[in-house]
Amino acid sequence: MTTNRIAFQGEPGAYSHEACRTARPDLMALPCRTFEDVVEAVRSGEADLAMLPVENSTYGRVADIHHLLPESGLHIIDEAFVRVHISLLAVPGTRLDQVREAMSHTVLLGQCRNFMRKHGIHAVTGADTAGSAKEVAARNTPALAALAAPLAGEIYGLERLADRIEDRQNNTTRFLIMAREPDLARRADRMLTSFVFRVRNIPAALYKAMGGFATNGVNMTKLESYMVGGVFTATQFYADIEGHPEDANVQLALEELRYFTSMLDILGVYPADPLREAQRNVR
Q: Per its UniProt record, what Pfam families does this chain match (predicted)?
């Protein structure tokens, strides 16, 4: 049974909502209050897919998301790179010189400092981007605008006074699309495999575990560590590699990794987003 819905965290008009419309325009987007609610919507069958942000090119990884992925019971089937284009949104009829304050999530406020300084606009911290747009629409005063995605302006009936006002024009968020079942049958020119693991408690275990990827010519695009269980001695690693587990060199690398690990869990196998190559070429 399918629902033709994809769940995301946030209010309608959030950047995660925009990611849903970009990557899965044929599905209805389902807003959820928390990341845990997004996962539960898929597990329960309320939605077919989950759209989860994992990292931003400016601000790094999304807090707590690496803990959620292996515990979700879901599988990564795709990735989506979404450019963070920021618009100044105000009630209809507002002129730019009337705006005195702009509301948004603190992260987004920090990405528009040059524009805000140039126009003498003061920052007001909101709960999130789309929620700020919703609040601006409700207050209905020209002095207060919102910084959010253009989609939020469409949804809440606000005018775009300025577009693409972010300080860094290459600011991009990477999302993972997750489903109840894995999809290992697809093949593309560039495949990715994501997994988590814990190394055995032996000297130089991580160094030895990583050696298999080097000797077998497997490119590791990401390796991050984070604590588990609330103790400093229990460390788990999240990794992305290029290739499919059925590729001969990836098979050999994973076999060597298993020898030095106490746990290894494949989270997903999926094609690389075309924008990944574009991000690689940005300097």
A: PDT
